[in-house]
Design goal:
Blueprint: E1 23-28, H1 39-48, E2 52-59, E3 68-75, E4 79-80, E5 83-84, E6 99-105, E7 108-114, E8 119-124, E9 129-132, E10 136-142, E11 149-156, H2 164-169, E12 173-176, E13 183-186
Antiparallel strand pairs: 1-2, 2-3, 3-11, 4-5, 6-9, 6-11, 7-8, 7-10, 12-13
Length: 195
């Protein structure tokens, strides 16, 4: 198949693994160093097992304006201390590009913020579509301890990913596990971006 013709793929329940994909990316706990609040719990878990936190199945397209990059993410359940498993989170390198998510399975949250101090945390539930506007960083969180959070994503081909800003500053808000259910709290380790 060449890249300049239309193509299709299927996302069928119950597993939603795309019928066609080009890249299978695996992110382990070790790739999240410095991102979890409880660094001692992180270090202890990492010694035991550099477990898989999430997997991404991507369709290969050119990284050009006009193209739409897309794929499906499987964020596995689990905790690091009281914090749910989560993705790395990122701004886009081309900051004025947006992203769209369609939740297919599970439950969780999208944690978002911009450099002007605005933030939002939106629930991800099957069938819910989430639009992340330009200039907003975003990270997904699996608030289930039993099943994967699965979602389809699509974003402009030239957008790129800026993981470094989030690695340095973190997100303003965290989603923590409690007996009363998920709690959205301030991140005491958050640092504003130095411009």
């Amino acid at each position: 198949m060449t890249m300049d013709i239309p193509f299709i793929f299927e996302l069928r329940p119950p597993d939603f693994i795309p019928s066609r994909f080009d890249n299978h990316i695996i992110r382990t706990l070790g790739s999240m160093e410095g991102q979890y609040l409880d660094q001692q719990a992180f270090a202890s878990l990492l010694v035991e097992d550099d477990r898989v936190l999430y997997e991404v199945y991507e369709t290969q397209r050119p990284h050009n304006s006009g193209e739409l990059l897309n794929g499906v993410t499987f964020l596995h359940p689990g905790l690091v201390g009281d914090e749910y498993n989560m993705t790395k989170g990122h701004f886009h390198q081309v900051a004025n590009t947006a992203e769209v998510y369609l939740c297919l399975k599970g439950q969780g949250y999208m944690v978002m913020e911009n450099l002007q101090g605005e933030w939002a945390v939106e629930a991800l539930l099957p069938g819910r579509v989430l639009y992340v506007p330009p200039f907003w960083a975003h990270r997904s969180v699996n608030s289930s301890l039993e099943e994967d959070l699965v979602f389809f994503f699509v974003y402009p081909g030239h957008a790129g990913h800026d993981y470094g800003t989030i690695e340095r500053q973190g997100f303003r808000k965290l989603v923590l596990h409690s007996k009363a259910g998920p709690q959205i709290v301030d991140n005491p380790r958050w640092q504003p971006v130095k411009v």
